[in-house]
Amino acid sequence: MNIKGWLHPTNRTKRLLVGLFLGVLFCIQCTQDMQANKVGNGTAVISKGKELAPASSDVAATVDTLAKKSHVELLKYCLNNYRSHYTDYTCKFIKQETIRGRLGKEQTTTVKFMEKPFSVVMTWTANRPSPADRVIYVDYKYDKKVLCRPVGMLGSLVGTQKRDPWGEEAKAHSLKPITEFGMAKMTQSLIDVYEAAHKAGDCREEFGGYFDLGGRKCVRLDRYLNANPAQNYPAKKTETYIDVEYLVPVCVKGWDWNDKFSCSYGYKDIKFNMLLTENDFLPQSNQMDEPK
Q1: CA 250 to chain centre
Q2: CB-CB contact of 261 with 97 (8 Å)
Q3: pTM of the model
């Protein structure tokens, strides 16, 4: 090795050293960019739309304070944040419900969802409750009917079907219609029950602590209601898990008036602001035929 050349570098050596230095800086920057783009790493969420800043210490403190002070205020805080920051998302949706006195199997679907216009695509990947394995609902289209894709030979024979989201067939498979799906509507429904129960003097709420759900830090809200036939509350006990970074309810569980587990709704692998468009909710974009 020519030690003298390194101690007294020529112009060629200087260029080489500068090049090596710039190369190291480039590698460092690439590594930082790759780390920043990891979804759900507790620092930021990068999607096709925009980067969502991580929850600040002030936000975390607000969540903690409201969780211990007022569940309604926390849920309203989350709902306002949702409406300000999120336009669409994809996720896995996992639900289990007691329908007509029988607890069904846990169902898993992949979901595409857009707020405006209200649009949903659900594809069952486990325990579909009906002959259809995929449904589409778009608020202003198809006479406000749900498009269903029957599987197997039935699908080949009859093709895409239209069904009433509030009809008896839908009620046999789900407690709520697809028109009520989504994080915003779930949050608003929780708020409505809390406020009605507080007004009637039927509500007791408790801070349930912090939990890890699939690698996501969540705060739990525990709600206990008194039986009141005039109000027709959905559950005696409810556990609501709120993601402290996303500020959305990612899991809600309920127990009936006999203290038996009755329902569960959960969101996993959420990716917000995916720049979904109306084209993403067309039948041909979801391996479905146009309804006849």
Answers
A1: 6
A2: no
A3: 0.81
